[in-house]
Amino acid sequence: MSTDTPGIDPLEALRAPRDPACDVFLTGPVFLDIIFTGLDSAPVRGTESWARGMGSSPGGVANMATALARLGLHTSLAAAFGDDHYGEYCWDALEQGEGIDLSMSHTVPGWHSPVTVSMAYEGERTMVSHGHEAPAPAPVAGTSTGAAAPVFPQCPPRARAAVASLAPGRSEPWVATAARDGALVFGDVGWDETGRWDLDALPDLAHCEAFLPNAEEAMRYTRTDCPRAAAHALAERVPLAVVTLGAEGAYAVDGRTGTAAAVPAIEVEALDPTGAGDVFVAGFVTGTLADWPLADRLAFAGLTAALSVQEFGGSLSAPGWAEIAAWWQLIRTCDSQDPAALERYAFLDDLLPTTARAWPLRRAVPTIGFRQ
To answer: Domain Carbohydrate kinase PfkB: where (predicted)?
Structure first.
């Protein structure tokens, strides 16, 4: 975990000797993200645009892994890393900088790191990416079975939770294994390029504890014209349906109890939305594992996402407990704040350190490779 974040363990009261060492397992591609901010408008063809800010950080699945680790969860990531300087930087930033377990990850000789350039302007972003699919890990010499190292994906680590990216027509065997071994699987999803929007085409949804689409995705998958109606329809398929509503906040339905919760979004000036969805999922996973009430989980997830968009970069902008404590300390001193609205976040009082650094905090660095 980052050294500037107080060592808060949100699961401390729930831990037992026989619990898995891993709180959350996830897998996916790691990108080197280069983020340009402070653009006045979208780049115009045939012209040169100058950005007022720039940052570099591990991206892709690293956004969510970092967000989870900064919230105090023991996080394990299985990913391929290039053997170039970008891959070395990403590995070091995640393992040494954030304390993420990379024992299931591997470096691929002769393979270069995928790269994304993200341009943020007017609260939106445009991205350009380049990369090639990583080859499978080579078999281990001298083993009788010829099994690959590491043991993932055949044997994912035992964990309290796992985050899976669902895609139409794709089934990842590790998801079923993780669920069978007791992990709560949280499924996120992207845009359906097939245009079918068929929940039956997401086979791993059957293993999910929670499904977290945005409003547009939820309505398309359920053939409804209201995000809240979509959440109730999804709750017939998964125990927890969480629909993010953008500037309107989020809405969730517990399919087991019928409980529903709605939490408005926090109004902030967005610098860069990169990774905000990943941070939201990380916040919701944290609250779920800590067994908080549904409305508190939504509020916490929305808060962490709101804090993240005020900084540039995906993983670099993910807030830790220091940032959350600083925000809570500051917001209660603002005369313009509605006391009733602040009451929604009163549960933070029992979680946060009594002292916090000044807000706003800055994490991002302009580039990689500076000598200490």
So the answer is: 52-319
Region 18-41+50-131+150-319: CATH code: 3.40.1190.20
Q: 3-class SS at 73?
A: coil
Q: What does the block give as tokens for 112?
A: 């270069």
Strand, coil or helix: 233: helix
| CB contact burial 47-74 (16+ within 10 A = b; e otherwise) | eeeebebbbbbbbbbbbbbbbbbbbbbb
What tokens does 195 get?
Answer: 């245009």
Structure tokens at 170: 């794709």
How are beta strands 115-121 and 53-60 bridged, if at all? unpaired
The Cα 277–Cα 177 span in angstroms is: 26
Interatomic CA distance for residues 250 and 299, integer angstroms: 8
Give the pLDDT confidence of 35-72 residue by residue, as tens digits: 887 888 888 899 999 988 888 889 999 999 999 999 99
pTM of the model: 0.90
